[in-house]
Amino acid sequence: MKYLLIVILLSISVCNGYSQSNQEEKTGSWFTYAGTHRVSDKLSVSTLSQVWMFELAENFNFILLYGGINYKVSPNLTTSLAYGYGDIDGGFYTDKPHTYENRIFEQVTFKHKVSTLPFDHRFRVEQRFFHKYDFKSTSHRFRYRLGTKLTLNKSLFIRLNNEFLVTLESDILTENRLYTALGINISKSCNVQLGYLNRKINGLNLHRLQAGLYIKTDHRKKKQ
User: Fold this and answer.
1) What are the E-state strand segments in the chain?
2) Within the chain, which residues score under 70 in pLDDT?
3) 114-166: per-residue pLDDT in tens?
4) pTM of the predicted protein model
5) Do residues 137 and 128 touch, judged by C-beta distance below 8 A?
6) Rounded to 10 degrees, what is the CA torsion of 98, 101, 107, 109?
7) One-character DSSP codes across 133-156
8) How far apart are CA 191 and CA 189, in angstroms?
9) Paired residues of 116 in beta bridges
10) Measuring CA to CA, which residue among 162, 154, 190, 160 is closest to residue 178?
């Protein structure tokens, strides 16, 4: 129960004290599917799809699809290389043209414990290639995410993480994402998460409800 209170207090604190634009007045939604498919002791493949909405289940904002390969350097350290494709809406209730993105990223994930509390650190560098009509541009971004998972029982857990995003061309913090969720273990290889995301970007303070499905599969050959 104390963990649930922590999540509620964090969510309330980040919602207060900000002026609102039309976009900020809406509670949007964020739907996620993520899969990790192990093919050997060292290698695994990741797949992900995300759909963002300006409002609850309507008013399209963004879609991202990506696939990547992961190499486990040690039990606590994993490196990744991935490619993603994105479609970005031109704006909130506007007829501006969409922007299309091709994205490559390199990533390092490190896990450890402080006492009995697990922490995970994700470091990611992205090369982003945008296209809109005849206009093309390139951007590079660094991301760092710190997260933890609080186990309540065999079926329930709480996920907490905060991520900083920096556009390297401007060398300033361009975005922050604070995420809290209640996770439900459907099986050993599948869970769903229902949560809240506070996204601060370009002077906006956005609130998003998230629903995610996370799957892990193991395709290694069983030892005889």
Assistant:
1) 27-38, 43-55, 58-74, 77-88, 99-114, 117-132, 135-151, 156-167, 172-187, 190-201, 204-218
2) 1-21, 171, 223-224
3) 999 999 999 999 999 999 888 899 999 999 999 999 999 999 999 999 999 99
4) 0.86
5) no
6) 20
7) TTEEEEEEEEEEEEEEEEE-SSSE
8) 7
9) none
10) 162
